[in-house]
Design a protein that fits this description.
Oligomer: homodimer
Helix content of chain A: under 10%
CATH superfamily of chain A: Jelly Rolls
Largest interface: A-B, 40 and 39 residues
Number of domains of chain A: 1
Structural class of chain A: mainly beta
Shape of chain A: globular
Strand content of chain A: over 45%
Number of strands of chain A: 8
Distance between the termini of chain A: 20 Å
Amino acid sequence: MGQTKINLADKFSLFNEHWTPKIIGEMNGQYVKVGKGQGELIWHTHEDEDEFFLVLHGTLSIHIGDDIIHLSPGECFIVPRGVPHKTSAQSETHFLLVEPKATQHTGQIQSDQTVDVEDQVWI
Amino acid sequence: MGQTKINLADKFSLFNEHWTPKIIGEMNGQYVKVGKGQGELIWHTHEDEDEFFLVLHGTLSIHIGDDIIHLSPGECFIVPRGVPHKTSAQSETHFLLVEPKATQHTGQIQSDQTVDVEDQVWI
């Protein structure tokens, strides 16, 4: 059948980079990714893509305008398309991310942190 | 900004029915749902939709042909479109589900367990 189960702890053990999510699955034109973060990612906007976050470890902060949403393990947030945002974390956080395959890492912004769509890695 | 965080434990506290997932979010034409299950759901197929499962509590078994994939908390599985499957659980399991908004609960099969697309509930 070609499908195997995906163990999130196993996937998180395979990388250490921050703010460079890795692809673990694909469904309905979306990628399922796992990410680690500490410090912060730059402000950016995805014009045509909503992003779903579920935190699994630590606290992930999502900044939207003057609001900061702090997500603990078991908490989710959907960043709607077109909304400028950045993510930050005071200590290491692990999260699950679901977004369209075409989503650009930092929207139209290119920075040292940016991973181009074609350079994303499956683990 | 209209978006608030979603606490999965809070959502699971709001219902007890088995095999009737509730909608907790929407993104990119997909619904994010939470479900509880014990016993089993009937065999069915989604012809055009992949289904992503992440188990949060207990053990969820996904039957595909003669294979049974047992998922513990922190384990995921994507049931590809067109593949007949059923889900079962010996004791209560809680899971997160992501699938297209148009996904019919039990595919083309109508049973006592079926919840029609238009009767699905947001919590």
